[in-house]
Every structure is written in structure tokens, then in C-alpha cells.
Specification:
It is a single chain. This protein is an alpha/beta fold and 224 residues long. It has one domain (6-223): Rossmann fold, CATH 3.40.50. The protein has helices at 16-31, 39-42, 46-53, 62-78, 95-106, 134-137, 155-176, 186-189, 192-205, 214-223, and strands at residues 6-10, 35-37, 84-88, 111-115, 142-145. The chain has a 5-stranded parallel sheet, with helices on both faces. Helix 5 (95-106) links the parallel strand 3 and strand 4. Helix 1 crosses helix 7, helix 3 (46-53) crosses helix 4 and helix 4 (62-78) crosses helix 9. The radius of gyration is 18 Å and the shape is globular.
Length: 224
Amino acid sequence: MQEKISVYIAAALFNAREAHFNSCIVKALERRGYKTNFPQRDGFEFADLAETLKETLSQEEIPTAVQEIIYHFDMGFLLPRSDVILANLDEPIDEGVVTEISYAQLMGKPVIGLRTDIRSPYGSLTDRFKGMHFFPALQCNEFVAYKMPTNSSLLSDSENEFYSLANAIAQRISALMINPQETIPDYVSRNPNISKIIKRAEQLFGGIKNIHSKQGLETIARRY
């Protein structure tokens, strides 16, 4: 049985619109047969993590700890265990996404840029990157520009559109000829900046079966 390709979803997730779009594209990709590493689903709830950290840290130390734990889980745990990164590059481009795709390239992970935005602050929609800033775009091995319809109110139409978008992404994944491994090349582990992140992630999360459980959160808090 062929291993499924694992897709890391690099996207902003700070409001209902972003969170809904992310969930829809993940559902469509999984329907297409891909595994997904999805920080919005697989990562931490800020409140649960902060509450657990109260047992080991002062109130002043908790915000920094929450940031560092989430950073190391995404960058040092989920990202290295992914085969390809799908980066949402709609406006405004998220700073976290830019960091993730830059490190993904250093880890030897191919990046697919996704843009559905019709705004073109740095050029024109006729440009190859559809008017977005070319620095993040040039971190991508493949680029998908997709216009989502705005005049449909039917749920079935929305689901079909996301499945169509997933098919467009699948074509770019196929073009990359990925061999599913969910690992990083040996040369990457010799990069001190990357190995430091991965080692810290292993210290925090290694061997924990369920990071969302009370026991899992308490273990992470103690290790921190």
C-alpha cells in the first residue's frame, strides 16, 4: 500500500473567515487522499495550554512559554514530519507563513504557494504571481492562482469549488514527484539553526501520544 503524502497547511488562522477557509481546504485535500498536518486542528488551544502552565510558571512567564511551545510544535514537530507545504499567500500575507515556508525550504521541503486573492498590491493580476510581493512567492516550488466564485450561496457549490481547488493543488503535488517520507535529509540535521529547533521540539513533545490530553499538556509544562 502506497504511503499517503503529508501536506502541512501554512496559513493565518486568526479569524472566522481564515479558519473556515483552512478547514474547507483540509477537508477537500483529505477527500483527495492526502494526509494533512494542520496546526489549526493539530496544535494547541491557547487557553488550555496557558491554564496548564499555571502549575509550573508565574503569570508573567506564561505568554512567552505559550509562544515558544506553539512555535516549536509547528516548526520543529509538524513541519519536519510533512512532505510538502501548502502556503496560503492571500493578503495580508501572514508573517508566520513566510517564516514557515522559508524554513521549509531549508529543510528540503517543497512549497506550493496558493493565492485566491484578486488584490494586487505589488503589481498586476497578469503577473506570474498575480500582483503579490515576489519575495515570498519565490520561496515556492509551485504556485496555484485560483479564483474562487463570489456569487454562489449553495453549500454544495462551495464544497465542489473546494474540491476543484484541491484538484488544482494535487496537480502541483504530482508535478513535484514527492516520495512520502515525513523526514528531513541528513544535511538538514547538520544545520545548527534547524537542529536546535527540532531537538527542542523532541524534548518537549517526544513520546507524548496525545498532546491535547490533560496528561499530555502537564508533561509538556513540566518539560518546558
